[in-house]
Write a structure and sequence with these properties.
By secondary structure, the chain is α/β, with parallel strands linked by helices. The chain folds into 2 domains: about 120 residues, no CATH class; about 300 residues, Rossmann fold (3-Layer(aba) Sandwich), CATH 3.40.50.1820. The protein has an 8-stranded mixed sheet with strand order 2-3-6-5-9-10-11-12, sandwiched between helices. Strands 1-4 form a two-stranded parallel ribbon.
Length: about 450
Amino acid sequence: MDRLPAWILDTPLLEPWMTPLCVAAAVLVAAGLWWWRTRRLPRAAQAGLLLVPAVLAVAGWWWVNRVWAPFADGVAPAVFAWAGLALLVLGQVLAGPWRPHPGRWGLAGIGAAAVTALTVTLGVNAHYCTYESLAVMTGAHVHWTDWDTARGEEARTVVPASSWTPPPGLPEHGTVSTVPLPASDPSFSPRDAVVYLPPAYHADPRPALPVLVLMAGVPGTPTDWVGPGRAAETLDAYAAAHGGLAPILVSVDPLGGSLVNPLCSDGPHGDVAAYVARDVPAWVEQTLQVDPDRHHWTIGGISNGATCALQTVARTPDAYGSVLVLSGELHPDLGGEERTISEGFGGDRAAYEANDPLSLFAQAEHGRGPGARGAYRSVQGIVSVGQGDRYVGMPVPRELAGSARRAGLDLQLRTYPGGHSWHVWSRAFEDQLPWAAQRMGLR
């Protein structure tokens, strides 16, 4: 992909005209195949070519969202509509006459299938507002650095960030690396973390920088934050305006797989809560030279990862000083409270409530639980949502913020144009970073 011209890699994929363009292209392909290949087939065969993909699309929606239900918010109907259209084109390619020019028809079929695959990919991407360009979709905008090279040697001198002066020749950009970040519980196997080290970290003397721990949603991976989230670019821009200083980013995996949701709890999938609250900070402190004051550390996430971030500070308010809750859920969720308690916590409601932020905040109001004796007063945060988010909805952040404030945890509320997508979250992160950096002790 690096060999493609910049104008192709940087072509915007989330413009308002993208969805109509994709629909028009797919319809033209299907109509063209009908005219040139299948219009002479018996009417029953033509009806089958239309009905079978439609039935399969509806059946797929029902099975994925009602039976399997791997995601609490489900898979959008638009995805199944695109899948049905792709099956229609495939059926036309296979059913059409191949004589008297099989080679010509074969190439035409391959071309039609390729165009359809492209339009389906772009159409689904436009629906979820995920990848802004081909560069972001392919990861070509991220310049990865080997972890051993990025971490380098320990600095001879480490000074507080407030008294550090940028030396000449400081790098213009930070480094982005993947690195194993294991859990203390062998039954939980997180995927590799992504670590961003800002330009100032590569200096000697080295400033003691604070740490920002972020998590993606379900489905998602740690690389999402530097992919569609564009966090490395946002942090680079912040560093450029602050003499090379920015938080260290550690994007971690609280899931163990794209289709797994252990509800950020210690349970059948392993000690995930302990991983986020204890293992990750311990690894960072042992591996990097950082600001040891946990009040200067921030945890955050999007969607399921945002819920996990709020769960973490609700259970262990001394683990992080600030929290960013971007489109977080009202409760840990597998698709309804009964199913969540049954499948996620073995039917144990007490275990569910011990991992539910609203339940913990309610306990704190009565002087019980982890937030007793004003423990939440040392934590502040921002809870945010897209104004058109149909999954979370505006009442959710209001209730989270209100419940947290009553328990002593000050949560601001911010809203952004858009829905439940990286289009919102990447811009929300850019907007919230200055607030978080100030809380983290950076000037």
